[in-house]
Amino acid sequence: MSYTGEKPPERLNLARYCLSAKPAEKTALIVAGPDATERWSYGELEDTVLRLAQGLRRSSVEPGQRLFIRMGNSLDYALVFFAANAIGAVPIPASPMLTTSEVERLVHLSGARHIAWDGLLPLPRVEGAKVLSPDDIARMKRAPAGTYADTGADDPAYLIFTSGTSGTPKGVLHAQRAVWGRRPMYQGWYGISASDIVLHTGAFNWTYTLGTGLCDPFANSATSVVYTGDRNQDIWARLVMEHGVTIMASVPGLYRQMLRAGFNPAHSLRHGLTAGEALAAPILEAWRSQTGRELYEALGMSEISTYISSSPGVPVKPGSPGKPQPGRSVQVLADGQIGVHRSDPGLFLRYWGEEPAGDAWFATGDLGEIDDEGYLWYRGRADDLMNAGGFRVSPLEVEAVLLQHPTVADAGVREWRVSETASIIAAFIVPQPDAAANEQAILAFVRDRLAAYKCPKQIWFVHALPRTANGKLIRKALERP
Predict the structure, then answer these.
(1) Which among 77, 143, 203, 334 has the fewest CB atoms less than 10 Å away?
(2) CA distance 348 to 304
(3) pLDDT > 70: percent of the chain
(4) What is the rounded CA–CA span in Å between residue 481 and residue 476?
(5) What is the pTM of this model?
(6) According to the 3-state scheme, what is the secondary structure of the chain?
C-alpha cells in the first residue's frame, strides 16, 4: 500500500531540480505586467538565482536557517524563494495580506533570522532578525554566481504557515523531495510537455503559483506566464491570446468570474486546471459549453499539494476531483478521512515545533468516498461538517444544489447556532444580477433534490461571500446581513 512511483535520489535540491540542465536560450518565464512584459530565458533565470544565492551566503544566510519573505506580487518573491533554497536555507513564503503583528508572530514562531523585504509592505521591528532591503537584494543579484548546496532529499526545503483548523498558525515543513513528489501531477493532472506555455492566474506570493505555476513548468522545460497587474476579468483571455498559452491554472471562483465576463480563449488553449476548492457542477458545465475545452480538477492541501485529480488520461466525472495520481497510495480511513501513505515523497516532513508522526497514514482532515471506478468523492473538511438533528451534513453537498438554481450566483452554507442547545443549516446566497431571487422558491428547489435534514432552514441574501485573496470560501466568516 506504499508509494509505488519512482523514488527520489538520495541527494536532491529543489532549485537545482527546477532550473539546472535546461535549454539555456529557451524562454522559461514571461512576467506580464500592466505596462510591460519581461521574458527570462532558463540561462538568465538560473544565473540570477545563483547570483542571489551567493549574495545571501555573503549576508550570513546559512543552510537550515529560515528566511521570511515579506514581499508583494513581484518576480523578486520567486527569485528569493529559489535562491534561498539553492543554498540549503529554508524560505518561508508568506502572504502579503498578513498584518504586521501576524508577521512578527510568525517570525518568532519560525525562528527566522532574516526577512527579505520589498520596501513596500509594512514591516514590524523584530529583534534578532536582519532585514534584507530592496537595495540589498539588488546588490546580491550582482554577486558572482554561486553553486547549489548538496542537500539531501530529506533536508528541509521550505516552510508554509497555514491558519490551521483552530485558527492558530501551523507550520508545514517540506523536504527537498517535495519537488520530486510533484512528478505524479505532470501527467496525472497537467498532461504537460516541454512545448507547453502555462498561465497561472495567481500571484508569485501564493504557494499554488510557486508549485503549479513555476516549479512544475520549469521542471518540464516548459514556459510559465505570471501576471503582476490588477486582476480584472478581461485580462486572462488577452494573456492566453498574446502568449499562446496552452494550459491555464486557476481557482473555481475566478473561472466563474471569467465566464461571466464572456471568456473566449484563443485556439492555443488545450485545457484548464482548477484547485483550491471544490469545482461546482454549474461552473464545469458553463466552462465546457462556453469554451469547448475540458477543465481538470485536483484535490490537495498544504501538506502534500495535489494528489487526486482528473487529467487528459483520467476522464472528468462531474462532482469528483478525480483519482489518486499515478504512484500515490490513497485510501479512506476508518473515520471517513482521506489518508495518504507516509511513504509518498510529496508529503511534508512534520509540523513546525512537533515531532514527525510515526503512523503509516497521514489523515488529511478531508472526508471522502472512493467509488468502484476508483474516483474519489470529496465530502468536505471534517471540521466543516454540520450537525443537523444528529445527522452529519457536508456544506459542499448543499452548496452544489443551491448553485444549480438559476437565480443563485454564489452560495455558502454553514451551521448556524440559534440557541445554546440548537443549531440549523443556514445558506448565504448572492443572487444573479437583476434576478428576482425568492427564498421560498429556492428552498423548494433544494427540498426536491436533498433529504429534508440536509436542507437549509434559513436563507440570507448577501452582496458577496467572504473569500481569501485566492478565491477560497471562508465559511466561518459567513455572517447574517
Answers:
(1) 334
(2) 6
(3) 97
(4) 15
(5) 0.84
(6) CCCCCCCCCCECCHHHHHHCCCCCCCEEEEEECCCCEEEEEHHHHHHHHHHHHHHHHHCCCCCCCEEEEECCCCHHHHHHHHHHHHCCCEEEECCCCCCHHHHHHHHHHHCCCEEEECCCCCCCCCCCCEEECHHHHHHHCCCCCCCCCCCECCCEEEEEEECCCCCCCEEEEEEHHHCHHHHHHHHHHHCCCCCCEEEECCCCCCHHHHHHHHHHHHHCCCEEEEECCCCCCCHHHHHHHHHCCCEEEECHHHHHHHHHCCCCCCCCCCEEEECCCCCCHHHHHHHHHHHCCEEEEEEEECCCEEEEECECCECCCCCCCEEECCCCCEEECCCCEEEEECCCCCCCCEECCCCCCCCCEEEEEEEEEECCCCCEEEEEEHHHCEEECCEEECHHHHHHHHCCCCCEEEEEEEEEECCCCCEEEEEEEEECCCCCCCHHHHHHHHHCCCCHHHCCCEEEECCCCCECCCCCECHHHCCCC
Condensed to tens digits (0 to 9), the pLDDT of residues 131-140 reads: 999 999 999 9
- Which pLDDT score, from 0 to 100, does residue 469 have? 67
C-alpha grid cell, residue 170: 501551523
Give the separation between CA 61 and CA 349, rounded to whole angstroms.
22
Terminal CA-CA length for the chain: 49
Place of cell 482548477: 274
Residue 389 Rama label (left phi>0; alpha psi -120 to 50; beta): left
Give the span between the Cα atoms of 64 and 158, in whole angstroms: 10
The contacts of residue 330 (CB under 8 Å, 6+ apart) are 307, 308, 324, 338, 339, 340, 341, 370, 376
- Angle between helix 75-86 and helix 42-58 axes, rounded to 10 deg: 60
What pLDDT, on the 0 to 100 scale, is given for residue 208? Answer: 92
Amino acid at site 63: P
User: How high is the pLDDT of residue 253?
Assistant: 81
State which residues of the chain have pLDDT below 70: 163-168, 389-392, 420-422, 469-470
**C-alpha cell at position 89:** 536555507
The backbone torsions φ and ψ at residue 101, rounded to the nearest 5 degrees and listed phi first, read: -70, -35
Query: Which grid cell sits at 217?
Result: 513548468
Question: 165: closest CA among 411, 476, 409, 406?
Answer: 476
Q: How far apart are CA 56 and CA 67, in angstroms?
A: 10
